[in-house]
Amino acid sequence: MTFRVDERATDLREIDRYDRGVGWIAHPDERMQRASHAIDVDGELWVVDPVDADGLDELLVEHGDVAGVVVLLDRHKRDAAAVANRHDVPVYLPRQFDGVSEEIDAPVARFSDELSDTGIEAHTLVDNRFWCEVALYDPADGTLVVPESLGTAEFFVTGSERLGVHPMRRLVPPRAQLEGLSPTRILVGHGPGVHEHAPKILEHALSGSRWRTPRLYAKTAWGMRPF
Question: Could you name the domain of life of the organism this protein comes from (predicted)?
């Protein structure tokens, strides 16, 4: 598995461009396909879980001025501090994230049910000592951002899945937490997003998560076999 950390990429690949945002994968060859996004709210950009790369600032300036950098998973500090410091903005953390601010070398701001005053809702997906994760939902255009519980990278999906639940969450998918949302698109922290038939694809991922677990685990074990 190729997985590089704290290394500025030179081969940024754009993904998930839409009217109010854009995404990118900084290291297209890595198995986990770490994806980052920028969401435009009235000309201000909110950069989500960024992995830094050459050419990133040029990509961002097409959409507006960076207002803040957001971390949605306690393990997704990634290059948040570097991007925030370069644009002289804070790193925004969910209020329930304990101990994360001490690991970020940049000014920190907190949010709870709404991301600053953007109108973007914050929905807690997991909150325990091992895993803290928050999803964003923009009711203005139906954009749902899920950093880790859902993904499209090969590691997450099996069979007919276009979108899959993280292997560690397969038996407890975030169905209740996402109930009532009807997204236009789903942006994820690993892999390109889903931009068509998003509600149907989300329901398929969540409803079949448990019974497709053995197939995903078998696929993962097969992929790790020695040659």
Answer: Archaea
Q: pTM for the whole thing?
A: 0.91
Distance CA 24, CA 163 (A): 18
> What is the Cα–Cα distance from 13 to 109, expressed in whole angstroms?
29
CA-CA distance, 144 to 137, in Å (whole number)? 5
Complete domains list, the chain, with CATH: 13-223 (3.60.15.10)
**DSSP 3-state assignment of 111?**
strand
CB-based contact 79:50 (threshold 8 Å): yes
pLDDT in tens, 76-100: 899 999 999 999 999 999 999 988 8
At which residue do the structure tokens 């590691």 appear? 155
**Read out DSSP for 25-62?**
ES-TTSTT-BEEEEEEETTEEEEES---BTTHHHHHHT
Contact 13, 27 (CB under 8 A): no
